[in-house]
Structures are given as C-alpha cells and as structure tokens.
Amino acid sequence: xxxxxxxxxxxxxxxxxxxxxxxxxxxxxxxxxxxxxxxxxxxxxxxxxxxxxxxxxxxxxxxxxxxxxxxxxxxxxxxxxxxxxxxxxxxxxxxxxxxxxxxxxxxxxxxxxxxxxxxxxxxxxxxxxxxxxxxxxxxxxxxxxxxxxxxxxxxxxxxxxxxxxxxxxxxxxxxxxxxxxxxxxxxxxxxxxxxxxxxxxxxxxxxxxxxxxxxxxxxxxxxxxxxxxxxxxxxxxxxxxxxxxxxxxxxxxxxxxxxxxxxxxxxxxxxxxxxxxxxxxxxxxxxxxxxxxxxxxxxxxxxxxxxxxxxxxxxxxxxxxxxxxxxxxxxxxxxxxxxxxxxxxxxxxxxxxxxxxxxxxxxxxxxxxxxxxxxxxxxxxxxxxxx
Length: 387
Fold this sequence. Notes:
The protein contains 12 helices and 10 strands. By secondary structure, it is α+β, with helices and mostly antiparallel strands.
C-alpha cells in the first residue's frame, strides 16, 4: 500500500504545511497542527502546563528515597486578597468545583419547591448510588426525564460485580442537570439548549462570577465540560477568591447549609469532599472538581471574612495525594481529617509550602500516616549481615 501523506501543499485550511490528522478535511482549522509545542494563533498567550512553575506538594518515599513526587499549585485567599500562593497562579478550568456558583443564580427559584436532599443533589458530583439517582430523579416529573442530557455513564464508585448498564442518571452531574431544568421551568427559561453557552443559565452564571471577580472580568476560554455544560477558565487564585466569598456569603441562600447538612449526597462514600464536610461540622464546604481540583471554603477566626483554599494537582485527579494536602491544610486550621487510605508501600511527606509560613510549625504535628498504617517498605534487620 502506498504511503498516504497526512498533508500536502495544496491542503485546505490555514495550516497547509503543518501535519494534522485532519489536514484538508472540513473543520481542520479547529484541530492542533503539532503534537509537540506549536500552537494555533488563537492559543497564543494561554500558558500550557509546561509553562507553569508547578511545585512539589507531596512525595512518597520508600526507606527514605523519594519514588514519586506530586506537583501542583495551592492558593489561599480571603474575599479581598491572596494570602498565600504556592506553585504559581495556574490557569485551569474550574469544572465541577464550580457547582455552588453555577447554582447560585438558581437558588431562589429552587428554594421553595425542593427538599434539603434535593438541594444537596443539585450541587453534587455524586457516586451514582441508588440514593443519589433517586434524589436526582425526584427533581423532575418522569415525563420530563428525557430532557436531562448528561452522557451515558455507570456509577462512579461501585461495589461487587459490574452489572449496570450505562444510564444518564448514573452520571455524577445528573443532579445538577435535573436541578437546572427544574429551575428553568420556574424562571420561564427554555429548557431546550440548557447546556449551550448562549442559554440564560450560563449567562447568569457568568454574572455570578463577575459579582465576586469584578464587572470587567471575562474568561479567557469557555469550553465544554465532560457533562456537556460550559466550563470557564480561571486562575487558581481566582478560584480561591470565589471560595472565600462562598464562606462570606454563606447565609444568603441554602447552598452552604444543604452541602454541610447532606455531605454524602454531594459526593458519597469514600469521597474526599464528603469526608471533609463531615469533619468540618458545618464550618467547611468542600467540593472536588475534575481534573485534580479541590476547593475549600472555610469559616475560621483567623479569617473573619472567610477563607478560600484551592488545590490543583498538576497531573490530574489523585485522591490519595490530594487527601494528604487537604489533611495538612485543615489540620493547621484546627480541623482534624482522618486518612482512610492506608499507605502500605511508602510514606508520604508534605512540602511545607502548602500552608502559609505562619502555620509551618503547626504542620509538623499533622502526620500524613496513622498509627495503624503498616510499615512494609523497610526491613527490621540489617540486610548487610550475612550470618
């Protein structure tokens, strides 16, 4: 078979000389033209991951030798200022971590017609258990279930053999989508096209972000999230500002109370955000987000207006590493977080920069391992003794 060139001087589009899997095909101009480093003109000025000064957050050591290092970025903020930044002000997408803010413009519409459980599922990224699915489905009459357009999925965390067929309701965002549709009916907004960036829902969401980030704020990018809804780009610092504002304005609607009163509906068994909210006893809201995001909104006497802390893991979601970082951050603030993930191979060590300098001495007392963690990576005898 003769070689087929991927591009030719006569290929259509603005990059006829560049290699592309779709060179010459309709819509080829939207595809990358280089697998290494070249960017399309409209991407200039948008930093890529290799441009970011990621910093080590935690490393795993076996007998004192560092085997794995987890890089990322951390920002601490009040509603007025960044109080600590480690790893750079990285540009990323807020993804599901932004659900409390996406739902805020709909809070009044949903307030009088939903139960506390329904409110919690609207701001959830749930595991897809029977409890989660029932709560999500209860937001809509069965005749309207077909309007809910999350992708087909299976439960996020399952037990036993996989026997479930993919369904839209199993998707972790089904509660949010159902809540949006329910609110659109109350507000008189069209429910067709509710996932489009031109829909009144998304425009109201942008208005909520500008309320906290300034009227002139505009996202550098708007992209389609994994569930089909639009997601906007923010820096880690901006995300921390938003989460600080969430604590400051926690009493203006039901979002804070719904999340802290029903944390297992927000995530589920074994989920970091649910566990944090149960440990926080009403003073901490936590929300995970793909890919590698954790947002913390904290009521604390050191920060009377509210504290927002955001963690971004460079390589994407890593629940165990994020758990250690969250345990350190919450621990120095007086919120103990138990670690349910035993280290049976290595021990984790935190980089002090994950917390502000004022808390570094307190960080020494926040162990990343528990007394029941086995120590299986060292020998309890001198291996050089051959007798």
